Amino acid sequence: MPPLLNVKDLKVYFKIRDGWVEAVDGVSFTLREKETLGLVGESGCGKTTTAYAITQLLPRNAYIKGGKIVFMGEDLLKYLKKDGTIDIFDENIRKIRWNKISIIFQGAMDALNPVYKVGKQIEEAIMIHRPTLKFGEITERVEERGSKLQIYIPVKELSDRDLTLEDLNEAGERSTNPFILKSVGAAVAIIPVVGEEAGVKHDLLKDYITEELKKHKFSWKLREVIYDAGKGFMVHMESRDKAAEVFGELDELLTEHPVEVQHLMVFTLEWQKKIPDSPRVAYSSTPIREYTQKDARRRVVQLYRIVGLSPDRIDNYPHEYSGGMKQRALIAMALALNPPLVIADEPTTALDVITQYRILREIKKIQERYKMAMIIISHDISTVAEISDKMAVMYAGRLAELARTEDLFKEPKHPYTVGLLKSIPTIKGEREELHRRLASIPGSPPPLVNPPSGCRFHPRCPYAKDVCREKVPRPTKLSKTHIVWCHKVKAESEGSEW
Fold first, then answer.
1. Helix, strand, coil content of the chain in percent (nearest 5)
2. CA distances from 293 to 120, 131, 260 (A)
3. How many angstroms separate the first and last alpha carbons of the chain?
4. What's the rounded Cα separation, in Å, for the pair 316 and 118?
5. How far apart are CA 337 and CA 166, in angstroms?
6. Rounded percentage of the chain residues whose pLDDT exceeds 90
């Protein structure tokens, strides 16, 4: 199965008066569904630039000089201008931002508009993308009996053109095989938010809807359906008026229901197609009612409960929130449309240690609950280790080491990674041992306008030799999941002394 995100040989430079800033130079990594990548390194090493290049949220003087960013099978760099610059207002990339890739921005106070209520800002993100819903496949075979609203047509008579009244009249009486179903009926679509207890919640919601529908005397059918947005239910009725009536009742009741609902829409059903060699049926549909501000507000209420904020605070301004509450609000905003990928840029900056721990625990819990992938950026390697599956260590715009988090901590190979780990304070061990263990990396990261030749870490590396100053290190694959960019590691892996 291909990865969700594949970044290959990415190069991002900034044009300034003194020349080109080589902020990202040849970075490559992959990210699979539900996986968390920690992107770590000192300030100015290119972590944020790498992440923001994915969503193309970079300033005008940024040029993407090369590489590929393939997300869900689509190369996002095809939307660049011919000279490699970015149009942040390009409609194609705007459809992907927030809808498929969202960001928890660094600095919650700066990320929230101080003159707008926090809830309104989240609602705006939802309404701009205005969630749509397409019917996918129904999980049971449709066998309508005795209704005057359906006409059956053999699948072999389906063409790409629209069905006409003549098509229906001609083929209507000859359908005994797999079919298309032309219907003037309507349906209410309900999709719960999936999570750890998806099966239990799914059954709970089904029972809840069934009890509500039993109050009605008119005919209805409840079916389990696979939509483009996930598995849910379809309540099929004979008329759009009755569907609208049921929608209104469910709209009120589901707001307070313990199962969170990410979609509640009402549709007319236009046709249903039997899928060959399958008990499933595909649907075509048209929404009767657009996604409204009320729907967005209901979603914000759900989001606040998810991140541990009281819905009573939705209409407060940012200055009325504490630092931790602002950060939770940004997390809620990032989750608004259930994107498959979330980028968290220094999500715990300027927060105290206790609040940092709570925010990180909340992020991890939410990620596991909604099965999303995540890139978390930080200069604090110990913080990222708490929630990441694998880590990429960056230095001066290039990758130094990429490995599973556990492997990186147990067997760090790159001298820079070793230095970062030695600089982490600990309370374990004897006093003298702790003093010896806590160390710093001498020197500072180089300016990227005119970076060092060869390995960019060589001016600070205690093991540097002439080859380090002359040649850019190639990736050395120590295992399937452990890659290091270092001449010393390459030589030692081949059995040579250094």
1. 35, 25, 40
2. 10, 12, 18
3. 39
4. 6
5. 42
6. 41
Give the SS3 label for residue 296. Answer: helix
Q: Which residues contact 480 (CB under 8 A, 6 or more apart)?
A: none
Per residue in 275-289, pLDDT tens?
Answer: 555 555 555 555 555
Q: Tally the C-alpha atoms within 13 A of residue 284's C-alpha that lie toward its C-beta.
A: 12
More confident residue, 244 or 14: 14
pLDDT bracket for residue 120 (50, 70, 90) = very high
Beta strands in 4-53 (DSSP E): 5-16, 19-31, 36-40
What domains, with CATH codes, occur in the chain?
A: 1-100+339-426 (3.40.50.300), 109-131+292-338 (no CATH), 132-290 (3.30.70.260), 427-493 (no CATH)
Closest CA to 442 of 428, 458, 426: 458
Distances (CA, A) of 428 to 316, 433, 441: 44, 9, 21
Whether 305 contacts 329, CB under 8 Å:
no
d(CA 3, CA 158): 35
Nearest CA to 171 out of 151, 185, 190, 189 is that of 151
Is 0.70 topped by the overall pTM? yes
Collapse the DSSP code of 155 into the 3-class scheme (helix H, G, I; strand E, B; otherwise coil) and give the result: helix
Query: In which band, very low, low, confident or very high, does the pLDDT at 160 lie, cut at 50, 70 and 90?
Result: very low
The answer to whether 151 and 182 have CB atoms below 8 angstroms apart is yes
What would the pLDDT profile of 191-224 be if each residue is shown by its tens digit? Answer: 676 544 555 666 777 777 888 788 777 777 777 7
> Is-contact 365 397, C-beta < 8 A?
no
Whole-angstrom distance, CA of residue 262 vs CA of residue 205:
13
Contacts of 278 (CB under 8 A, 6+ apart): none
Distance CA 51, CA 37 (A): 11
CA–CA gap between residue 301 and residue 256 (Å, rounded): 10
Query: Residue 327 and residue 319: Cα distance in Å, rounded?
Result: 13
- Cβ atoms of 258 and 207 closer than 8 Å: no
- Among 389, 387, 401, CA closest to 482: 401
| SS3 assignment, position 268 | strand
Residue 150 banded pLDDT, cuts 50, 70, 90: very low
Quickly list DSSP for 440-455.
--SS-PPPSSSPPSSS
In the numeric block, the tokens 């083929």 are attached to 171
> HSE (CB half, 13 Å, CA atoms) of 162?
3
